C-alpha cells in the first residue's frame, strides 16, 4: 500500500502539473513563436510563423507611447500593445499599456480575466484600488486602495475588479501598465452589465441591484463608451 507521504507527494505533483495546464498563456517551447495571423489553424493563441521568415519588425511597433492621447467621456484612454500589435509577443505572456487620464478622469471598474497588472504612475496622482472576491467574511468584497504619486507602483491581481481615478481637477495623469498575458482582455463592469448586446433582462438587473426597473432602463439607454484602443 502507498504510504501517506507518497500519496501527498503524488497529489502535490498532480497539482503542479494541473496548475501548469491551466495557465492562461501557453509557455514557449523555443526561443520565440511569432504569431502567424494568416494561418487557418485555430489554437489557444496563434500558430507559429516559419522561423526562417521572422525578422526584427515582428518584435517592434512604433507605438508613440510617449505621446498624450485624447480621452473619452469617462476621462481616460487605454492604449494597449498586445499580441495583435506585436506578433512576437505570442506565447511570451506579457503586454503593455499607456493610460491617459483627464483631470477628474477615471479608468472605470473593470477586470482582466487573463492577467495580473502592475501599474506605474508617470505623471500626476491617481487614486487606485481593487476589490476582493466573494470569499468568507471578513475579507468578502474588501476594498484595498491607495493614492499613488509619480513613480509609485501598484499591483492588481488577476481577475479582480479594479479602477484608477485622477483626483486632480486641473492636471492630467499618465501611467504605464504591464500585464501578464499576451492578450489580457478587459471587462468594464458597467459596459458589460448595462451595455450588453442583446441587453440583459431588466427584471434580472432590477432584482440583482435592488432598484426599480425604470432605473435599469435608464442605465441601459446610455451610451457605454469603450476607453480601450
Automatic annotation (TrEMBL):
Catalyses which reaction(s): oxalate + O2 + 2 H(+) = H2O2 + 2 CO2
GO molecular function: manganese ion binding; oxalate oxidase activity
Subcellular location per the Swiss-Prot or TrEMBL entry: Cytoplasm; Secreted, Cell wall; Secreted, Extracellular space, Apoplast
InterPro entries: Cupin_1, Germin, Germin_Mn-BS, RmlC-like_jellyroll, RmlC_Cupin_sf
Pfam entry (one): Cupin_1
Binding site for oxalate: 107, 112, 117
Keyword vocabulary terms for this entry: Apoplast, Cell wall, Cytoplasm, Disulfide bond, Manganese, Metal-binding, Oxidoreductase, Secreted, Signal
Protein name according to UniProt: Germin-like protein
Function: Produces developmental and stress-related release of hydrogen peroxide in the apoplast. May play an important role in several aspects of plant growth and defense mechanisms.
Signal peptide limits: 1-23
Covalent S-S links between cysteines: 33-48
GO CC annotation, single: cytoplasm
Metal-binding listed as a keyword: yes
PROSITE patterns in alphabetical order: GERMIN (PS00725)
Domain (Cupin type-1): residue spans on this chain: 63-217
Binding site for Mn(2+): 110, 112, 117, 162
Amino acid at each position: 500500500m502507498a504510504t501517506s507521504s507518497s500519496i501527498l507527494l503524488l497529489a502535490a505533483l498532480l497539482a503542479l502539473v494541473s496548475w501548469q495546464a491551466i495557465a492562461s498563456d501557453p509557455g514557449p517551447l523555443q526561443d520565440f513563436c511569432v504569431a502567424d495571423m494568416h494561418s487557418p489553424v485555430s489554437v489557444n493563441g496563434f500558430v507559429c510563423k516559419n522561423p526562417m521568415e521572422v525578422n526584427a519588425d515582428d518584435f517592434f511597433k512604433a507605438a508613440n507611447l510617449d505621446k498624450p492621447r485624447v480621452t473619452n467621456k469617462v476621462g481616460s484612454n487605454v492604449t494597449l500593445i498586445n499580441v495583435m500589435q506585436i506578433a512576437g509577443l505570442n506565447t511570451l505572456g506579457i503586454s503593455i499599456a499607456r493610460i491617459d487620464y483627464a483631470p477628474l478622469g477615471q479608468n472605470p471598474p473593470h477586470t482582466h480575466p487573463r492577467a495580473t497588472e502592475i501599474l506605474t504612475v508617470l505623471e500626476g496622482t491617481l487614486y487606485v484600488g481593487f476589490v476582493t472576491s466573494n470569499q468568507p467574511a471578513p475579507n468578502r468584497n474588501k476594498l484595498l486602495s491607495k493614492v499613488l504619486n509619480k513613480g509609485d507602483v501598484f499591483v492588481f491581481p488577476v481577475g479582480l475588479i479594479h479602477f484608477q481615478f485622477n483626483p486632480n481637477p486641473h492636471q492630467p495623469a499618465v501611467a504605464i501598465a504591464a500585464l501578464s498575458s499576451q492578450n489580457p482582455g478587459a471587462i468594464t463592469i458597467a459596459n458589460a452589465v448595462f451595455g450588453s448586446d442583446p441587453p440583459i433582462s431588466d427584471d434580472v438587473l432590477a432584482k440583482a441591484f435592488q432598484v426599480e426597473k425604470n432605473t435599469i432602463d435608464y442605465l441601459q439607454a446610455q451610451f457605454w463608451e469603450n476607453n480601450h484602443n
